[in-house]
Amino acid sequence: MGDPRVVIVGAGMSGLCMAIKLKQAGLHDVTLYEKADALGGTWRDNTYPGLTCDVPSRFYQFSFATNPGWTHLYSPGPEIRDYLERIADRYGIREQIVFGTEVTAARHDDGRWRITTSRGPDEADFLLTATGVLHHPRLPDIPGLDAFEGPTFHSARWDHDVPLKGRRVAVVGTGSTGVQITSDLAGTPSRLLLFQRTAQWILPAPNREYGRLTRAAHRRMPVLDRLGYRWHEAVISHVLSQALIKPGWQRRLIGALCRRNLNKVTDPDLRARLTPPDEPMCKRLIASGGFYDAVQRPDVEVVTDAIDHVEARGVVTADGRLHEIDVLVLATGFDAHAYVRPMDLTTSDGRTLEAAWQDGPRAYQTVALPGFPNFFMLMGPHSPIGNYSLIAIAEAQADYILGWIRRWRAGLVASMAPTADATERFNSDMREALPRTIWTSGCASWYLGKDGLPELWPWTPREHASMLRTPVFDDFETTG
Ligand code: NAP
Question: What keywords does the record list, in alphabetical order (predicted)?
Fold first, then answer.
C-alpha cells in the first residue's frame, strides 16, 4: 500500500514521541503542525518561577532516550524543555515541524483527512492529535478583574518583564502551580499574598540535587539510567497509583505522610486554615518540599477569606478588607475538558467532534473515536494522567497507534475506527469503576466532568499499557 501520510497536531512531548516512533518505523511522510513558534507544549507555555515536574526526572523522560544529566530528583521546567529540544534534534524531528501554524479543521472525505490549517490546506491518511490536556488557561470569574491597575497574568502566561522584587504580589490559587510559585517566590516580593479558596494536601517531596559524581556515573553507565527509570516507575505504580484507585496501605501511607507534613506548620490558626476539608488525593496530589516553610515566613500571608472582587488598588475579600497589591498572578488552572478543541473535526457523514462530545470527552481505550476513521489521540480522554509520568503513557499510546499504521502500510486495512458498541462497553466499565477511586470522595477538582465523574483512568497505568499492547481487532470497523 506504500507509506501513509501522517499529520500530527502539536509538537509537545506526546507529538514528539509519536513522530519519533514513526521515524523509527521507517515512516517519513510525517508533518507536525505546531501553532506556536517553538516546541515543548506545556514546558514551553509554563515558565513561572519554581516550575518543576513533580514526577521524578528519571521516570519523566523517554524510556528510549534517557538523560544522564538531570540535575535534580524533580527537574526544573527549563531543563525538561531543553531535553525535549535536544530530543527533537537528535531524532531529526524538527525538520518535520511546521511552526506557527494552527490546524483549525479537518474533514474525513473519500478515505483521507482534508485538513485546514492557518497556512492553507493539507491532506493525510492518518490524523493524530497530540494537543495536550492542560492547554487552555482558565481565568477566574472574579468581578472587577479588569479594574486592577497593576499587571495581571495567568501562571501559564508569565510576564517576565514585570519586576517582583520588593513589590506586593498576590497569587490566586493553591493547586500544584500556586504551591510551586509560592515556594519559589517567597522572599522576593516585599509581601506575598496567597489567596486560598480550598486548602490542599501536600506530600513532602524535598528536591534532592544530583551531584557531579552521580551525573558522571550515569553518563558512563547507561544501565544506571535504566535502573533509575524502573525504580521510580515501580514506586509510583505500586504505591501512588494503587492509593488512587482503591483503599489499602498505600492510601493510608500517603494520607499519613500528608497529615504529618502539615504538622510542620506551628501556628495552630494557620495550620487549621491550611487543613483541607477532603481526603488526601481527592484533588490531584501536590508534592512540594518548601511550601509550608514559605507560608510561615513573616512576609507571606495566606488569605483564606473569599475574594469578593478586585478593584484598582488590589483584592477585596468578603470581610470588606482591601489587600493592596502591585502584581496579580492567577494560578487558577486550566480548562481540562477542552480536549482537541477548538479544532473542528467532521466525518464524511457529517458527524462532528463537538456533537460526539456534547456530554464530555469520551473515547475508545483513550485513543480512538467511533465514526472517526484513521484518527487517533495521544493523551485522549481518560488517559491515566493522575500523578504518573505522562511520557510513559504517551509511549504506550504511540506504540498502539503505530500498530494500526503498520497494518495500513502492510495493506491489511485501509480504514479503521472503533465500533460504537465497543466504545460504549469500555466507557460503561469505566463508569462502574470510577466511583471506587479517591477522586469521587467529595471534593471539587478539574478531574471531574459534567456528569460528576472524574475524566481519569480508574485502573492502574500498567493496566492501561497492557490494554494497549493487545489490540482487540473485533472492536474495530475496518475496510480494505
Ligand atoms: P488547579 O489544580 O486547577 O488549581 C487551581 C487553583 O485555583 C485552585 O486552588 C482553585 O481553588 C483556585 N481557583 C480557581 N478559581 C478561583 C477563584 N475564582 N477564586 C479563588 N481561587 C480560585 O490548577 P494548577 O495549579 O495550575 O494545576 C493544574 C494541574 O497542572 C495540576 O493538577 C497538575 O496536573 C498540573 N501541574 C503539574 C505540575 C507538575 O509538577 N507535574 C505542576 C503544575 C501543574 P479550588 O481548589 O477551590 O477550586
Answer: FAD, Flavoprotein, Oxidoreductase
Least confident of 62-66, 99-103, 382-386: 382-386
- Measured from CB, residues less than 6 Å from any atom of ligand 1 are 52-55, 134, 140, 142, 172-178, 180, 195, 197-198, 284, 307, 331-334, 444, 446
C-alpha 284 to ligand 1 mean position (Å) = 9
d(CA 38, CA 242): 36
pLDDT by residue (tens digit) across 234-258? 999 999 999 999 999 999 999 999 9
Contact 374, 113 (CB under 8 A): yes
Amino acid identity for residue 100 in this structure: G
Q: Alpha helix (H) ranges present in 333-387? A: 353-356
Q: Which three cell numbers stand for residue 79?
A: 531543563
d(CA 353, CA 466): 28
Ligand 1 atom showing the smallest separation from residue 385 Cα: 34
CA of 175 to the centre of ligand 1 (A): 3
Residue with cell 497492557: 466
Give me the numbers of helices (H) and strands (E) for the chain, helices first please: 14, 21
Calpha distance 144→166 (Å, rounded): 25
Instruction: Give the pLDDT score at 342.
Output: 87
Lowest mean pLDDT of 18-27, 313-322, 342-351, name the range: 342-351
Q: Whose CA is nearest to atom 37 of ligand 1?
A: 176
pLDDT tens string 138-185: 999 999 999 999 999 999 999 999 999 999 999 999 999 999 999 999
Gap between the Cα atoms of 23 and 28, Å rounded: 6
Q: For residue 56, give the nearest of 280, 281, 237 by alpha carbon.
A: 237
Ligand 1 binding pocket mutation candidate from 72, 75, 177 (most atoms within 8 A of CB): 177
Amino acid in position 302 = V
309-318: per-residue pLDDT in tens? 999 999 999 9
**Which residues on adjacent β-strands are paired with residue 309?**
316
Contact by Cβ (8 Å): 409, 246? no
Percent of the chain whose pLDDT exceeds 90: 96
In degrees and rounded to multiples of 5, residue 78 shows phi and psi of -60, -30
The radius of gyration of the chain's CA atoms, rounded to the nearest angstrom, is 23
Q: Please state the pTM of the whole predicted model.
A: 0.96
One-letter amino acid of 469: R
Q: Are the beta carbons of 126 and 406 closer than 8 angstroms?
A: no
Neighbours of 136 (CB within 10 A): 16
Q: pLDDT tens for residues 42-97?
A: 999 999 999 999 999 999 999 999 999 999 999 999 999 999 999 999 999 999 99
Element (H, E) at 302: strand 300-303
Instruction: Look at ligand 1, atom 45, and give the residue with the nearest C-alpha.
Output: 198
